[in-house]
User: What shape does this take?
Amino acid sequence: MKKIEAIIKPFKLDDVKEALVEAGIEGMTVSEVKGYGRQQGHSELYRGAEYVVEFIPKIKIEIVVSADDYLNKAIEAIKSAAKTGKIGDGKIFVSEIEKTIRIRTDEEDAEAL
Amino acid sequence: MKLKLFALLAAFMPIAAFSADKLDSGDTAWMMISTALVLLMTPAGLALFYAGMSRSKNALNTYAMVMGAFVLAFVVWIVAGYSLAFGTAGSAFVQKFIGGFGNILLSETKWTDLSGTYPAYVFVAFQGTFAAITVAIASGSVIGRMKFSTWMVIVALWGLVVYAPITHMVWGGDGALLFDAGALDFAGGTVVHMNGGLAGLVLAILVGKRVGYPKTAMKPFSIILTAAGAALLWFGWYGFNGGSAFGANKIAGLAVLTTTVATAAAGVTWLLLEWAIFKKPTLLGIASGIIAGLVAITPAAGFVSVGGSFIVGIGGTLIAFFGVVTLKKKLGYDDSLDAFGIHFLAGLWGALVTGLLALNDKDLLWDGPLKESGDRIGQFMVQVQSVVVVGLWTLIGTVIVYYIASALTGGARVATEDEEIGLDESVHGERGMNL
Assistant: This one.
């Protein structure tokens, strides 16, 4: 099983979710995070004083998939839906998952996904 | 003419209730509503205005400082503040500065007494809301590092040592220093705004700057709350200025319009200034301009024309903008929420420009060099005198009150760790929002 963590621009969440559903992904976890990479912070004004804000709001999507074809479909779905072509589009990380359990039924691993 | 003077004086000297006055239900209703309007300005208007600008970790504490100040200041007002402010002292010399302790707990004022054409009790309550908002204004300068206990002691002492005497000197009736000189302050440009703003600066300097100021970004909790607070302040200000006509009459009507014109002009001016200078107009800017305009028109509301109101409002923004954006950085003081920058400076402008723009109209509610002998320059000099006297009294009085309060509470400043955690948690053990 593989875990996909994708950091995307917040306004792209709906597009990415639609693309993932179309690719056959049935569930996901979403959290509001802050971060920066190469994107410079933006500045905010307070009575004329400019504050540079480095941490920019992003959305993190976490999905766990059972098979490699789902993995590739999910990655493609995220990439195409989340891309704007401008700096700050985000990143996708893939890692290995040891075990998955469905709490309600005690199903494990592939059956739990 | 003599009867008119009679009625005028009656409005300013409620302790000696003249039997010539009868209760007017319109005036009474208006003054009671005005009391409620001005009350709204502090625990709702000012509290939201200030809390919105504080950092999230201190927003609840900011609100508590304002609301706490309001309730305590009112109690002090009833106990002794009213007597000191509007009483008549035994000796002529004392009467120049304070009204004496003859009316503690309103022992000398009966519920049947009149202040002009409405109950004296309403006058007491109305003036009490002014006493309370004045000290609450000062809290804005010390947000984020002052102990709540010290603040409450300051509130209690300041009401008696600074606010009541200044109120007496400007509005206290015959024998009072600035009242006799003919100083024009319709609703409290010097008494409330210059006073509160300067006290704030004094306290801010004495308690010291916040940790990390000015390098650390101190982002406001919610500018939307600040803007809502400014709107509530504007709403309540119709009681502040309109009620200072002490009746539902033409002068109140004048004050209602001048307040509207000056404030709107001031809001637009700040908006345009920011747009031009910083390229982006901000909601905080519009809200700040509104407050600057309201403060500036306060001493002038019942004395100037429509054209005068525009000048007062625009000038109020110009000077407050300068104070907030330039002066503060140059002089390096940490006036957290710009109580000095907006209240003192716009109040100072209003007090002085009132002397220059007050209409020479015999039907207006005041006495002074201008009305008596058409002496515009003389009137302006009296305005300068009032500003200097009030400024000095506030400065010295606030320093004294600070040191007494600080000694009584073991130091005015919270521990550094508490300051860094935030006063909501360290002082109150509360969260402003549980999201």
User: Anything to note?
Assistant: Chain A has a mean pLDDT of 91.
